[in-house]
Design goal:
The protein has helices spanning about 1-25, 100-145, 150-190, 250, 400-405; strands at about 30-35, 40-55, 55-60, 65-70, 80, 85-90, 205-210, 215-220, 225, 230-235, 240-250, 260-265, 270-280, 285, 295-305, 320-335, 340, 345-350, 355-365, 370-375, 380-385, 395-400. The protein is of the alpha+beta class. The chain has four domains: about 30-40 and about 330-405, Beta Barrel (conserved putative lor/sdh protein from methanococcus maripaludis s2 fold); about 45-55 and about 240-330, Elongation Factor Tu (Ef-tu), domain 3, CATH 2.40.30.170; about 60-95 and about 195-235, Beta Barrel (OB fold (Dihydrolipoamide Acetyltransferase, E2P)), CATH 2.40.50.100; about 100-190. A six-stranded antiparallel beta barrel has the order 2-11-15-13-12-16. A four-stranded antiparallel sheet has the order 3-10-8-5, with no helix packed on it. A four-stranded antiparallel sheet has the order 7-6-4-9, with no helix packed on it. The longest helix has about 50 residues, at about 100-145. It is found in: Cell envelope.
Length: about 400
């Protein structure tokens, strides 16, 4: 019996030694992060930087060429449609004359003066002839009344008087024309040193605000020469804002009219609500800071939050917009960090009895951090986040939380 007990002891010791050797030769457990497959709300979003702009702006332009007075309004001033004078334009000063131009103008004046004298002489001759023919007409009428002059002779005298009167009118008109020409030539001699605007309101064009709002921009406050059609200032309502965002063409595919958005990091404490109003049909090319050509699509959003919730937000402010392209209320999802590609399919590792078990899954929508699981794993299963190259199907694993507690 003593021998039997000894045999059992030896066998037990041998078994313990063999078990210890086997345990020592087994690979160590790999510490991993385990995350439970969960159900919950999920959103697929697109984030981009945007710029606020006043929705409707009005450009006030110069209706005529002239000298714009110093602006009576300043940036930020409130204006009323049809009442507030936002600009005034007066006639421009004539240009300076160089020596050659002045000599030409002086010669033209001399020529015009001579033409006036010539026209005056012609008028004097026409008036003298008219006086002569009118006297002849009076004599012919007297002789005709006494019966000593034929009727035909009287008619000739009347015709001669009419012709002389018409010649006098022509000479008078020619003199008036020559005098006007002289005045024009004399005006050409007058430069800015001789002509000065008298400041009367009759000489100016006053421009009133086309709509009620606030002056958003002034091209120049100082007095200056402007041409017809040149922009003077811009007016708009700073509370009526919209947001312009240039999205990558790949991200813009999921954006439709009416897509909801959140406006964040605009400077306030609240998150503003917005909605897509316009998506332009054509993209444009933009070179990124890394020198990469990107196709961008302009998108316009309306801010839905009232102005009282966005006090201080103005025109051309930078904001950050998050557009919700898809959302679900009860979605089975896992972290994107748990997914990897295997044999052309999505796969992940599930924890089963302390070992990693590879499972193929069908993935639906993806957000920035989570992925929708259509099939492949049940709710509550624990998956390995960030599986490294040391993880394979059947690898012994140990949760990091458990390892931390054991230490």
């Amino acid at each position: 019996m003593f021998r039997s007990a000894r045999t059992v002891s030896v066998a037990l010791i041998a078994a313990l030694v063999a078990g210890g050797l086997i345990w020592a030769l087994l690979p160590a457990r790999v510490r991993v992060d385990l995350v439970a497959v969960r159900r919950g709300p999920m959103q697929v979003t697109v984030s981009a930087e945007g710029i606020t702009r006043v929705r409707d702006t009005w450009l006030v332009t110069a209706p005529v060429t002239g000298e714009a007075r110093r602006s009576p309004v300043h940036v930020g001033d409130a204006v009323t449609a049809g009442e507030t004078v936002v600009a005034a334009i007066e006639p421009a000063e004539p240009p300076f004359l160089d020596a050659r131009a002045r000599r030409l103008a002086e010669a033209a004046v001399v020529e015009a003066e001579a033409a006036v004298r010539l026209a005056g002489a012609s008028l004097f001759r026409a008036e003298t002839e008219l006086m002569h023919f009118e006297a002849e007409l009076d004599r012919a009428r007297a002789l005709t009344d006494r019966g000593t002059l034929a009727q035909a002779m009287l008619e000739d005298a009347e015709q001669a008087a009419l012709s002389a009167r018409a010649a006098r009118d022509v000479a008078q008109s020619d003199l008036d024309m020559r005098r006007a020409t002289l005045a024009r030539m004399e005006a050409q001699l007058e430069g800015p040193e001789t002509l000065a605007f008298d400041g009367s309101a009759d000489c100016c064009v006053e421009i009133t605000a086309p709509r009620t709002g606030v002056v958003l921009d002034l091209v120049d406050e100082s007095a200056r020469l402007v041409t017809a059609g040149e922009t003077l200032l811009m007016i708009g309502d700073p509370e009526d804002l919209e947001i312009h965002v240039d999205l990558l063409s790949n991200d813009a595919i999921g954006v439709v009219l009416g897509t909801r958005a959140r406006v964040e990091r605009w400077g306030g404490d609240t998150v503003l609500d917005a909605e897509v109003r316009q998506i332009e049909p054509s993209a444009f090319t933009r070179v990124s800071a890394l020198g990469i050509e990107e196709q961008r699509v302009p998108v316009v959003l309306d801010i839905l939050s009232p102005a009282t919730e966005r006090v201080g937000l103005g025109d051309r402010y930078r904001v950050y917009v998050t557009l919700v392209t898809w959302e679900g209320k009860d979605v089975l999802q896992v972290p994107q960090s748990a997914l990897f590609r295997s044999a052309g399919e999505w796969a992940l590792f599930v924890e089963e009895d302390g070992r990693a078990a590879q499972r193929s899954v069908k993935v639906g929508h993806m957000s920035s951090d989570w992925a929708e699981i259509v099939s492949g794993v049940p709710e509550g299963a624990r998956v390995i986040a960030y599986p490294g190259s040391s993880i394979e199907d059947g690898t012994r694993i140990e949760p990091r939380e458990t390892a931390a507690e054991a230490s």
